[in-house]
């Protein structure tokens, strides 16, 4: 059974609840929300394989996703967590595989419409540049302290 | 005595020689090069102070710049090194101070013309998003290995 389609405003609220978008202005999230494609996946579905070229990111609405290299589990992600976001932005190869560890409701955002959005709305590009800078600053802090 | 003004192509070559722009296409660097303002600074010039809001990045053409928190030196940067680049992109506060440790020839790129460029040339925004992703991937690799 399919879940009902979410309203745009519900998608915006989901994006806003993600740590990577916590500081992102709502008008940018409102541009991004229509690109969120709803997916229902069964347990054990392979979402992507290590080494593949990535062209989308995922948000977990409900369920668990295992990030792994072969049999070695690197992380188990749960509701409202994001994965594959660097491949959305730069289309490099996936550094690990992702498999559904339970039945999952996911959102997928594909690279092509995302880059069309960036090309037509420079403030979205600025928003993402800012998000990436914040993550780099946080990483730098961590490595100084680490 | 002022040095002669550099040609655009020389500025592009300088940008290309920087590790952060090594993979950046020349057409993007050619858009960025006219924003490089040449500066001659004497030894002991304070370029910026920890905690200030940053709005520009610097490239060292010749000389040495000390990055420090008060009296504690974090790094001494030399020819063809870059500093302050995160503040160019996100206008957050400077995490440390920068002082010329010798007479220096520098380039400064200011945020306002940089963001005007990003707004009019989405491929420049894409290029910077890619650069930031590469740096995050490199940082992630380092913290996994570290």
Automatic annotation (TrEMBL), chains A, B:
Residues 20-135 form the Cyclic nucleotide-binding domain. Transmembrane segments: none annotated. InterPro entries: cNMP-bd_CS, cNMP-bd_dom, cNMP-bd_dom_sf, RmlC-like_jellyroll. Pfam families: cNMP_binding. This is Cyclic nucleotide-binding domain-containing protein. The lineage of its organism: Bacteria, Pseudomonadati, Bacteroidota, Chitinophagia, Chitinophagales.
